[in-house]
Amino acid sequence: MLILGLLIFLGIHCVGFFPEWRQRRVDGMGLLPWKGLYSLIALAGFVLIILGFQRARLDPVVLYAPPAWLGHLNSLFTLIAFILLAAAYVPGNRIRARLGHPMVVAAKVWAFGHLLSIGLLHDVVLFGAFLVWAIVAFAKLRRRDRAQGVTYAPGTLKGDVITLVVGVVAWALFAFWLHGALIGVRPFG
């Protein structure tokens, strides 16, 4: 179930790699129906990931036992990922101007940090799949940007500060409260 969910969720998120195919679907059905179908498929994949991950946690398979300090390093990686995620939405920041696709980089950093710190099979499948997808997605998106001459507006110090504050606050809320409530694991006890 976890693998099927990953194939569906990450698969639909690969549609952007094929802009001509995507545009033919949009032209054939209209933009709003396309967005609705895309969202339903992504949601179905996400639900399968959650259910599959929950089931896999009931019978864990240990692949490796990382040292405890990698958990602390993962906290740093996750903080960086939240700042990168904020950079995808906060206008006028230099992170977005530099990276172009900070959300995809956030997924890479998040997945890599979790792979370092958790050695269970279901975690490796989940985070490994996201890491591979994010590496491929970033390369494809940057190549597309260069081919199309896409440039991003230069950021400002104000945009950087807002991005940093939003990212740190969101990380703190998630790390100290939401992660335990939603995932069932409290990174800080």
Automatic annotation (TrEMBL):
It is found in: Membrane. Signal peptide: none annotated. This is NnrU family protein. Its main location: membrane. The keyword Transmembrane helix applies. The chain crosses the membrane at residues 38-56, 68-90, 110-139, 160-183. Residues 1-187 form the NnrU domain. It is a multi-pass membrane protein. It comes from Alloalcanivorax venustensis ISO4. Keywords: Membrane, Transmembrane, Transmembrane helix.
